[in-house]
Amino acid sequence: MLHHGGLSGERARTARRALSGGTVRRMSGAPSREVLKGLWRFEALHPDWTEEDGGEDGWEPEVAWWALETSRGILLIDPLILAWEGLDELVEREGGCAGVIRTLHWHQRSVAEVAARYQAGVWAKRPPSQTEQDWPPFDRPLEDGEPLLDGIRAFDLERGDELALWLPAQS
Description:
3 helices, seven-stranded mixed beta sheet, 9 strands, two-stranded antiparallel ribbon, alpha/beta
């Protein structure tokens, strides 16, 4: 979703600034802002990040995740929750949590906690058979081109283990 994978260093920071409207802010639990009608971008410092994870081919300590308004409530995408208050308010205001999507297996982050807290199902890509025992659990597998809620569709990315989402209401 709003994928800028494969970028590193300054190009990745530039992409994040463009997606966030020019300013990258460190947020804990409150939405940084509604970037498009019905789409909220959150940012958090990843608690497992180390200096070894950074560098030109690495990843930044600040990661993004998303909340999307649907007819069944908020759909949370790759959540990383450091404070619940802002998210609880958003979920309540928007009619509950419609589900959680994990776009990449190492984006487990707060997926299990969010699913338990809001009694929501988890959608994710099916694991390759050889790694199934190490794959984080989910309730519903997502396949390439599969429709979800309100015309949202999941699509495989070139890497093969990652999904992008098509959001027709925001296009």
